[in-house]
Amino acid sequence: MTPQKRSYPWTSDVGGHPITFRLMTPADKEVFRDFVRSVPEEDNFFLLLDVRQDRSLDHWMRGVETGRTISVIALENGKMVGYGNLHTSELNWTRHVGEVRLQVARSHRGRGLGKVLAQEVFGIARSRGLQKIMARMASSQTGARQVFASLGFQPEALLADFVIDAQGRTQDLVIMSHDVTGFVN
Ligand SMILES: CC(C)(COP(=O)(O)OP(=O)(O)OC[C@H]1O[C@@H](n2cnc3c(N)ncnc32)[C@H](O)[C@@H]1OP(=O)(O)O)[C@@H](O)C(=O)NCCC(=O)NCCS
Description:
The chain is of the alpha+beta class. The chain has four helices and eight strands, in the order ββααβββαβαββ.
């Protein structure tokens, strides 16, 4: 199949709400910061950045600028309500693997938004020639595990005590994966 270049922005009804999808640009730092700082701390636990620190957000935006991080953001009335990220590897030997992260505002969950964002990220991964996509989550994130399972992800590995929270409690890290070519959207 020839990879299709996706075009943005586009708007669609998701669970009765008009949601606009577009790619994040470096100019979206504030809209991104407002969103990630508005969600409960435990929802940001799994992120690769410390959302409380501006320099961490700047680092994220540099990834967006260089194309290493591609984010599809979902907006309702100009306010961000979710995103799907694809992180690609700088390493030659893992250049075929991307890592996906999804986050949807609690107010907008359970309406199919996470699934739309995942489909967008998969489409981008395919158009970039990636072959495998992975997601990491803590073992306590049972909802997230079920969401990824419903998208066809398979459990790949469980790393004992690889995650530690602010209170020093450890838990297992779950890695799930999906072959990009096998994803239909
Ligand atoms: C994971 C997350 C992005 C899902 O977003 P969402 O918009 O609620 O997901 P959707 O409504 O598109 O649901 C997708 C599928 O998962 C299922 N699902 C959604 N939430 C679920 C839950 N808590 N438990 C079990 N299944 C769930 C839905 O039924 C649907 O399955 P179906 O297609 O078979 O009907 C959202 O819960 C979230 O932001 N969680 C916090 C961040 C996180 O854990 N991210 C994952 C790690 S990268």
